[in-house]
Design a protein that fits this description.
This protein is mainly β and about 300 residues long. It has four helices and 22 strands.
């Protein structure tokens, strides 16, 4: 009888081990570590998309249900700079993402790096500027991670470089990425988001976000030492898996309070009343009397950038 029982026990044990292995491979099991794992080389790709609510939008599409009176518009320009990308571990610690390359969309510096995400394509629909760049590629130490954090904006050390100097990284130069700079003191437009209404006259609703009140004069050899309103924004996604999700910019939420039958402009001027609702959606401190700090509002969370399933 013993010879008849032993094969049954071994078979049951083998089946249990196989089931445990299957659960582990699929992310199941009660003792699994949280998050997701990189490959052995630590490669990471972060994908970006433009949406209205949860609906993907592009240069060739007409976006409906926009603004305070539910009007329609088309993307004219949609670009933004991202820097200081870090992956989040389960214990809350962060690890910097090292960009894979320096090119027209990325710069890898010794201390600061920056990428330009472009969700508009020149010559398509109403779009007049931009060459699609919808992802950030980089590496981290191989391991498990649970989320990602980054800054919307260009680091101070890079923001005020001349946009026409051949020594300036290509991603920050006007001949490579036109209309993303104001001047040496004003630096870069951290975002350039423009929608063209389908209403009479095709008025434009736009947000040009950038630092203001900057002290210094780079054109005369005096470097910028700081800005009264930096207007940089931390984007934090505590639970984010880049294999399954992407980071979406929601134009419907950003411009929810705008009247798309008229022109709406926010160019980050400290006294520009047209910036109130935009900055509120981004949870950046702004007061049209000029006292805004351009920093995150304590206790509030931005609603424009969100993690959506791919």
């Amino acid at each position: 009888m013993a010879f008849q029982v032993r094969p049954l026990v071994l078979s049951t044990l083998s089946a249990g081990l196989a089931l445990a292995a299957l659960l582990s491979a699929c992310g199941g099991g009660s003792d699994d570590s949280p998050g997701w794992s990189t490959d052995s080389a630590g490669n990471v790709s972060l994908q970006f998309e433009a949406v209205a609510g949860s609906t993907p939008v592009s240069c060739g599409s007409t976006i409906t249900g926009l603004g305070s009176t539910s009007k329609s518009a088309r993307i004219q320009d949609l670009r933004f700079y991202v820097s200081d990308v870090q992956l989040i571990k389960a214990d809350g610690s962060t690890v910097p993402l090292t960009l894979s390359t320096t090119d027209n969309n990325n710069y890898v510096g010794s201390t600061d790096s920056v990428s330009l995400i472009t969700l508009s394509q020149a010559g398509t629909g109403a779009c007049t500027t931009g060459t699609l760049n919808t992802a950030i590629q980089g590496t981290v130490p191989a391991g498990r991670y649970v989320g990602v954090t980054m800054t919307l904006g260009v680091p101070l050390s890079l923001n005020h470089l001349s946009s026409t100097d051949a020594a300036t990284p290509a991603v920050l130069r006007s001949d490579v990425n036109p209309s993303m700079s104001w001047n040496w003191r004003g630096g870069r437009k951290f975002t350039k988001i423009e929608l063209q209404s389908t209403e009479a006259g095709n008025p434009v609703t736009l947000l040009h976000l950038g630092s203001t009140g900057c002290v210094g004069d780079p054109a005369n050899g005096v470097p910028i030492t700081g800005c009264t309103a930096p207007n940089r924004l931390t984007l934090n996604f505590a639970n984010f898996n880049p294999a399954q999700q992407q980071i979406a910019l929601d134009v419907q939420t950003l411009f929810a309070q705008k009247d798309f039958t008229a022109m709406n402009m926010c160019m980050s001027s400290p006294t520009d009343a047209g910036c109130v609702s935009d900055f509120s959606a981004l949870a950046l401190n702004f007061n049209p009397d000029g006292t805004g700090t351009g920093t995150a509002i304590a206790g509030q969370t931005q609603t424009v950038f969100k993690a959506l399933s791919r």
